[in-house]
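Run log, item B.
One chain of 150 residues. Sequence copied directly from the ordering sheet:
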Amino acid sequence: MATKSQIENAVDSHFPAAAARGAALRQRGDLAKSATYDARRKRLQIELVSGSAVAIPVSQVEGLADAKAAQIQAVKVVGRGYGLHWPALDLDLAVPDLLAGCFGTRAWMSALGRKAGQATSEAKAAAARENGRKGGRPRKVVPSVPVGRA
């Protein structure tokens, strides 16, 4: 088990790099100035310190997808704009991750991708029909394996 001084040394050694990353985020404006929930559109709206704003459907955010509107509206900006916190949900999300399109864990994002891949549209159906007229999906080319010498 690490001693208190070992932990303090580890924190001290990482602090300058973390402070530099935070300064870069502030300079780019990738931190939240405010966050609100638009219940009518079911979107989390984040105003950034840069003056830009983003709106994210809460159905895509892990931890918010099944939450009640009152719980989502209680969002607080924390960490000088780095994070968002929902006390009733015991949920914290990093603003830079949300801006990068990462709305949850790897498993959550994979599930979102599978769900999106199942979506149908007239454009998808038209592309499938066109591909069918051309003979369907091309066959995979299996590379030939050289036969060893005996």
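Observations after the first pass:
- The chain has a mean pLDDT of 83.
- Residues 29-117 form a domain with the NE0471 N-terminal domain-like fold (CATH 3.30.2020.40).
Flagged for discussion on Thursday.
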